Amino acid sequence: MNIYKAKDYDDMSRKAANIIFSQIISKPDCVLGLATGSTPLGIYRRLAEWYEAGDLDFSQVTTVNLDEYKGLPKENPQSYYYFMHENLFKKVNIHADRTFLPDGMETDSRKACEDYDAILHSVGGVDIQLLGLGHNGHIGFNEPGSIFEAETHCVTLADQTIKANRRFFESEEEVPREAYTMGIKTIMSARRILIVVSGADKADIVKKAFFGPITPQVPASVLQLHPDVTLVADEAALG
Ligand code: GLP
Question: How far is CA 137 from the centre of its chain?
């Protein structure tokens, strides 16, 4: 595992964005696995700036996102589709039909997950998967106890995750209880993994995930088994 220690959130974002930059430069038709949450926002800002400056071209890039809330339509500002559109897709020259997320409005969970896995296979796999880290060690929405062999599946969110994500909603009741997420197996099949972490409140889980035993109770710990993982974390998170 490569570990890059960043000074602060901005430095973390710049370092991680540079890794994605070099991926797009070296393979213009690459498949980027993308993530939501607050941590990647600085990365998306940088990528959009570099596109504006003429340094990056997304015209051949395909993106697949980790997860989506079940039951939220694309127009809902809390849907991950909306998040990606606002924070990245509408700011760069990516083709809308090359951006994929699980279909949150598909009520048949099995169909939603099978359809998404079919998309993931059809794009030929992920060149680099960006990940954030949940306070309980979740990646995507793979909560503690997730089996390592799962592909895309429907999950019931952990209470801690509902509480953590409550800040984006009017009330806790509005936070969806279920989501579709790539499974650990799907994530582990990416050719490269880039995980970003910021803030002292994540220091404990960083220690457990990357320097502790590999266990389904800390889903991110499985990344220790991946041959090409880069962790970019600020000093506070590595504290
Ligand atoms: C959500 C997302 C994850 C994300 C996590 C951490 O639950 N499903 O993909 O990594 O939150 O979010 P944040 O970066 O805001 O701490």
Answer: 13
Does residue 36 have its Cβ closer than 6 Å to ligand 1?
Answer: yes
Q: Are 33 and 190 in contact (CB under 8 A)?
A: yes
Cα of 3 vs centre of ligand 1, distance in Å, is 20
Count Cα neighbours of 212 within 13 Å in the Cβ-side half-sphere. 15
| Atom in ligand 1 nearest the alpha carbon of residue 157 | 7
pLDDT tens digits for range 173-229: 999 999 999 999 999 999 999 999 999 999 999 999 999 999 999 999 999 999 999
Number of domains in the chain: 1
- In this predicted model, which residue has the larger pLDDT, 146 or 217? 217
Q: What is the CATH number of the domain that holds 7?
A: 3.40.50.1360
